[in-house]
Amino acid sequence: MKHAVIIGSGVAGLASAIRLRLLGFEVSVFEKNSFPGGKLSDFKLGEYHFDRGPSLFTQPENVLELFRLAGKNPQDYIQIEKLKEANRYFFEDGTVVHGYTDVQKFDAELVTKLNEPKGSATKYLSEAARLYQHVGLIFLDYPLHRLKTWLHKRILKALSVVKGKHLISTVDQVNKQSFTSSKTQQIFNRFATYNGSNPYVAPAMLTMIPHLEHNEGAFYPKGGMISITKALFSLAKDVGVHFFFNETVQEIIKVTDTVTGVQTDQRNVSADVVVSNMDVYFTYQKLLNDNNTAFEISKQERSTSAIIFYWGIKKTFPELDLHSIFFSENYQQEFDELFVKKVLPDDPTIYINITAKKDKDHAPANAENWFVMINAPASQIINWEEAVQLAKTRVIEKLSRMIKTDIAALIDQEYIWHPGCIERDTASFLGSLYGSSSNDRMAAFFRHTNESKQYKNLFFAGGTVHPGGGIPLCLKSARMVELLVKEQFGDSVVNHTTVQELR
Question: Which of 9, 255, 352, 396 is most enclosed, with most CB atoms within 10 A?
Answer without folding.
Answer: 9
